[in-house]
Write a structure and sequence with these properties.
alpha+beta, GIY-YIG endonuclease, 4 domains, four-stranded antiparallel sheet, 16 strands
């Protein structure tokens, strides 16, 4: 007997109103029971979820409110479904999703449900490691399957059955046994899905936030393929760190964007809202004070929120005091500058660096201050803020054609003046722009984005400088 078929299998596929098994409901179930490598029962039914089906889910599955009206609810079918699953390995593609929905629905009827589980996403990954994608759409393309009514329960259950048959014929017993060990688990070992409509996420650019059981933000990220990225955290894909993170997540929030720059700007806004202590809004710089006899000769400036066009002889843009001081210490070491004169060290007389022969002695009158300060200015020249490369403000337009989501971002002097979702909003923004307010994280974000191949060509210089 082929190792895949040594035990009875119940191949299951569900369609639902969303991805949260505690809030959403099942709208369709299909079960293909296999015993001894042969199909002994094929059964499916629409189910009245007793709640409205969200429009995006109707578009995704093709199941409408009208289709489920008058159909039995889960309570009416629970005993029949449990009997069809009894004594079999629970098999599903991304088994965590279907298993959690049935476990929750059965629990409401006080029906025990804890079968062994075989996830065919994991099985495909174990048998075909040379392929990067293992969703049903990828498997259809890989194997050349011809299907109709994709995302209907019986269609998808039949696809899983075809995958098992092909695998049984393509691999020897040892390879199949190894893959089964990697893809199977005891029922109690299947982690719970987080809240959020994960299955309905489109393949579009966006931002995701992952929250733990206590509501704390565990991680965030962005992707041009949001659905694949987020679902990958909950299907065992990736390294052990990613899998561990996925098991801790209890809620997922997502936002769709027009492109990568839109996603980066939005992610920064969200992180500052949820974990402000990790994303401070500071930007420090220095101003050199000429002809000053007594230290320090550098004045610290707070640049965050200021207008870069008003800066005069500013050196450096730093996230905070530590970054600024560490940079200054490196300059002192490289150029034999005096920590006392720079304001890094208090006191009079010889500085510590002079005793280590790392200062030319301006602190003990062994070097004239003007010579020291000339050397300091040469060192500071490398820290001059990056010049704005355009004669005025610019617009950067992004469009995700599949979703139709668009955004035009307006920048001037590295300051983000705003983003418009349509031409009317853009006209309003350009007619009454906000004042330039420097934000170091936004400036660095934009500079990194512009360094990517092809991105600079998306910049459109506007006709006049925004006041």
């Amino acid at each position: 007997m082929n190792p895949l078929f040594e035990r009875p299998l119940a191949i299951v596929d569900l369609e639902t109103t969303g991805a949260d098994p505690h809030r959403d409901r099942i709208t369709e179930v299909a079960i293909v029971r296999v015993e001894g490598g042969e199909v002994v029962d094929r059964w499916s039914s629409l189910i009245d979820p007793e709640i409205p089906i969200p429009y995006r889910i109707q578009q995704f599955t093709g199941i409408s409110d009208a289709m489920v009206a008058g159909q039995p609810n889960f309570r009416a079918l629970a005993d029949d479904i449990a009997q069809r699953l009894e004594g079999a390995v629970f098999v599903a593609h991304n088994a965590r999703f279907d298993y959690n929905f049935l476990r929750t629905a059965f629990a409401a009827r006080q029906i025990a449900f804890d079968p062994p589980v075989l996830c065919t996403v994991k099985l495909s990954r174990a048998l075909y490691p040379e392929h990067a994608r293992h969703g049903l759409d990828a498997i259809i393309e890989r194997h050349g399957y011809v299907v109709e009514n994709r995302h209907r329960a019986m269609t998808d259950a039949d696809l899983v059955w075809r995958l098992l048959q092909d695998a049984a014929g393509a691999f020897d017993d040892d390879r199949l046994l190894l893959a089964l060990r990697r893809a199977g688990s005891a029922g109690a070992a299947v982690p719970k899905l987080p809240e959020g409509d994960l299955e309905a996420l489109p393949e579009a650019p966006g931002v995701y936030l992952l929250f733990g059981a206590g509501g704390q933000l565990l991680a965030s990220g962005r992707s041009n393929h949001l659905r694949s990225k987020v679902l990958g955290l909950f299907t065992g894909r990736g390294d052990s760190k990613s899998v561990k993170l996925g098991n801790q997540v209890r809620r997922v929030e997502t936002e769709f964007t027009a492109g990568d720059l839109d996603a980066q700007l939005r992610e920064l806004t969200l992180l500052r809202r949820h974990v402000p202590e990790k994303h401070p809004t500071r930007a420090l710089g220095w101003h050199f004070v000429p002809n000053r006899r007594r230290p320090p000769v550098l004045e610290e400036l707070e640049l965050q929120g200021s207008d870069p066009l008003e800066w005069r002889e500013v050196f450096g843009t730093f996230r905070g005091q530590r970054e600024a001081d560490n940079t200054l210490r490196e300059l002192a070491l490289l150029h034999r500058l005096c920590p006392q004169r720079l304001g890094l060290e208090n006191g009079r007389g010889a500085c510590q660096a002079y005793g280590l022969k790392r200062c030319d002695g301006v602190c003990v009158d062994a070097e004239r201050p003007e010579i020291h300060d000339a050397r300091l200015l040469r060192a500071l020249a490398s820290l001059a803020p990056r010049a704005w490369p355009w004669p005025g403000p610019v617009a950067i337009a992004e469009l995700h054609e599949a979703s139709g989501r668009a955004a035009t971002h307006v920048f001037d002097q590295w300051c983000h003046l705003g983003s418009a979702r349509d031409e009317a909003a853009l006209a309003d923004l350009l007619e009454s722009p906000p004042r330039r307010a420097f934000d170091l994280e936004v400036a660095r974000l934009l500079q990194r984005w512009l360094m990517q191949p092809g991105h600079a060509s998306a910049v459109r210089v506007l006709a006049q400088r925004v006041a």
